[in-house]
Amino acid sequence: MHIARFAALAIAAVLALPATASTVYEGKVVHVADGDTLAILSGGKRIKIRLAEIDTPEKRQPYGMQAKKALAALAFGKHVRVVTVTVDRYGRTVGKVYAGGVDVNAELVRQGHAWVYRRYAKDPRLYEFEAAARAAKRGLWANPQAIPPWEWRHGKKTEKRRVKAAAGAPFTCGTKRYCREMTSCKEARFYLHQCGLTRLDGDGDGVPCAKLCR
Q1: Which pLDDT score is estimated for 194?
Q2: Same domain for 31 and 108
Q3: Which helix (H) or strand (E) holds 125?
Q4: Is 5 known to be catalytic?
Q5: Which of 141, 85, 76 is nearest to 110 (CA)?
Q6: For residues 20 and 60, is the Cβ–Cβ distance under 8 A?
């Protein structure tokens, strides 16, 4: 009796352990969040999966919805196997997803729906698939101005910081355009750095409106 109870507790403890690089999950894909994130139902537990080694456009980025639809077409509603690579800082399982005989991560790259995530990629095939998709102008590569999602995210963070700084400032980016309209050096600096009104810095030394800020 005690042995059986101990065994049950041991099994429960193992199941409660966080995912490691050796963990393999199997389950049905019940949700697709975007082009590289999905959720599976495995053993009655919902597990969020971030596809390893690839990066797809964000949902609000150009081609984001197409990438999401591509992942859904490959995996949604299907029984998949997930080989864990790591767990990211958000607590998501990062892994390679296989639907039947299809390597979903690699297939997204091959079809032109994803970039190779150079910071983390280790599979050399992915670079070959990306080069071929780019040459054939498949998927997102039909747009020669396509922006890698890591660069797009960086740009959005910069914009958010600018907006946040502006929101907390005593000034707003209004219709003023000239030094004679500025009430103080502080306002001139705000218009230069937060509103991008570079004409206030005629000599390019980083100091606007010399008469106000001398």
Answers
A1: 80
A2: yes
A3: helix 124-136
A4: no
A5: 141
A6: no
